[in-house]
Amino acid sequence: MLFAIRCFDKDGHQEVRKRTRDEHLAYLNGQLDKIRMAGPLLADDGATPVGSLLLIEVPDRAAAESFAAGDPYAKAGLFDSVEIAGWKHVLP
Length: 92
What we know:
It is a single chain. The chain is of the alpha+beta class. It contains 3 helices and 4 strands; from the N terminus they run βαββααβ. It has helices at about 15-30, 60-70, 70-75; strands at about 1-10, 35-40, 50-55, 80-85. Strands 2-3-1-4 form a 4-stranded antiparallel sheet, covered by helices on one side. The mean pLDDT is about 100.
């Protein structure tokens, strides 16, 4: 099943994001069989990361929650909130 994971950074935590980015990318690269799309959410300036958006394919919600919890960004306390929702691909 497909799941969308939206993560929103805590204000003032850019240093946490920078410090854990390599570990975060290594984690995602180790999960490429599950990831359909992934990337940062950006502020209105189009450059400053303010969160993350991932579309993953896993068997169930528990697996999606486990995937999100295993992210080094989450473990480092970067996120203010994380939303997980089932998703259905319609277009294109």
